[in-house]
Amino acid sequence: MPLPMHPCVAIAIISTLIPIGPVVAEDAPHLATLALVDKPWAVRLDVTGFRVLADGVKPDGRRYLFATDDTRSIQLSVTLQSVPEPATEQGCLLQLEHVARTTRPAADQGPVRDTRRNLTLLEYVLPATAKAPAEQLHLLACTGKDDVYTDIHLSQPRGKGSDAALLHALLDSLTIVAAPAPSSLDHFRAGSAPYLQGKFALAIPHYEQALVLEQANPTLDRSLWQLLIHNLGTAYGRTGSFERAKATFDYGLSKDPANPIWHYELARTYAGMHDREKMLQALDTAFFHHRTRQGDEQMPDPRQDLSFSRFMSDPAFRRLAESLVQPAI
Asked: Has domain 184-324 been given CATH number 1.25.40.10?
């Protein structure tokens, strides 16, 4: 039986996938290292002087970094994307040719190959607009390794202080290095991408590894740790692994016994296991702790929850559900 995901949880996950970086520029030498969690290598780029605004994994699984150099008005984005087939020089060329064709006005020159840096490059200028009062110089670079494409996009307003050579110089710092060991946050991000797409079986291994790492050395903040427990337990339930879902929520409740959402998820899990008595008990406990906490978080209405569909005509379930959703007197 599928266990529906609470909509507030989905919103919370999205907000954590691309955490906001430091609010000040890095004046000291600073190297940004980006890797996909299942790859032994990473790309490294010198972002000294840049302010990192986004550094994480997008919901579609792409590794992403966005940074700005406010002093020189440069914007930088780096994206790593895994593809089903080997990433090739031809693939980079086709992608940048598409950009060149769709750019308005069209790029003066198509993509060129930089053999020294093993990059395919595209450079073009966009005219001034109401939102961007100066012409914008854009430099795109693409390279492939294994089944991963790395795309870099640099842009800067044309005018005093602008220099295409400066953008090209930033690419000189691009190197391939050994990837650091993935952290629990890395695995949490990697699991959340397929989770948000409903690919729960793909999310489970990353969430499991994140939990193993957290149990050995806790590093996630409390809100992300709670999401990890919720998502892993939910993913187990969505794939029919109800015993594992129960074990996950039991573990979470051993650390936070009064968490009403986990008690509610446990009730959903018992419903999937056809355990009527424990389902009713967990449901009652969930709403008890919700009332005790007196927080702003809303509880789902079990009368509208498909997880309990087999019990909708059960008189005991109906009485309990009706009593739980009544406002306190």
From this structure: yes
